Amino acid sequence: MKNLGRHILAEIYDCDPTILNNSGLIEEILVKAALEAGAEVREVAFHKFSPQGVSGVVIISESHLTIHTWPELGYAAVDVFTCGDRVNPWDACNYISKGLCAKHMDATEVKRGLFDMPVKAINF
Amino acid sequence: MKNLGRHILAEIYDCDPTILNNSGLIEEILVKAALEAGAEVREVAFHKFSPQGVSGVVIISESHLTIHTWPELGYAAVDVFTCGDRVNPWDACNYISKGLCAKHMDATEVKRGLFDMPVKAINF
Fold it and tell me: According to the UniProt entry, which residues carry Pyruvic acid (Ser) (chains A, B) (predicted)?
């Protein structure tokens, strides 16, 4: 089986709560994570919740990065989904974990888009 | 262990390629899926690739829905991530699969944000 993409689901604990509640900084960390991994940023959308918490996404040519933060728990749910062989999603994931000053991360990689035959998609 | 969220990773195969390449329609399907499931839409960002394919996200108060489509393969990678007990992510996922006229879906639910103690986050 050949997979189109790699998707990291990261549970990032014991982060700096001040960072987790700073929407502008979270956006900057995610965009820089995408760029550091060599991805091409296409769209960005972030939302600051009241009284706290940030949700955001960076759509890249290679798929996406998302984050949801719970400052009150020091926790962030992060996804990094990349297609193709050019970008390593772990580079972006580790950059984000470092940016959040996290003390602990549990992350799993899931293969996405499984096909029996090797396939070459043309949109990345 | 108590989890903050539920995340469905759906591999949706044998979809209608015309729908998969229609950015406006894909956006409509994802937004309606969120609303049908009872979620509150906060931000929307979609991107149409050349020569084909669509990537998009709907940020909801309860987390997010994302999609990446490969019309040439009849395939879509869909994620529905919801927090709290009010919204059932499977409702949104099944709505999307139906909207894409899919013949086959492989989907898995992953628990996100595991904590030893029951927690009550306050931002949803």
Answer: 63
Q: Which residues in chain A have their CB less than 8 angstroms from residue B50's CB?
A: 123
Determine whether B60 is exposed, middle or buried from the number of CB atoms within 10 Å of its CB (0-12, 13-18, 19+): buried
- Is A118 part of any domain? no
Residue A121 lies in a domain: no
Q: Is B61 left (phi over 0), alpha (psi -120 to 50) or beta?
A: alpha
In a domain, A119, yes or no: no
Give catalytic status of residue A93 as yes or no: no
* Cα–Cα distance measured from residue A28 to residue A107, given in angstroms and rounded to the nearest whole number: 22
Distance CA B83, CA B63 (A): 6
Nearest by CB to residue A52, choosing from B47, B57, B123, is B123
pLDDT digits (tens, 9 = 90+) for B66-98: 999 999 999 999 999 999 999 999 999 999 999
Q: Domain containing A41 — which CATH number?
A: 3.60.90.10
Number of domains in chain B: 1
* Entry pTM: 0.93
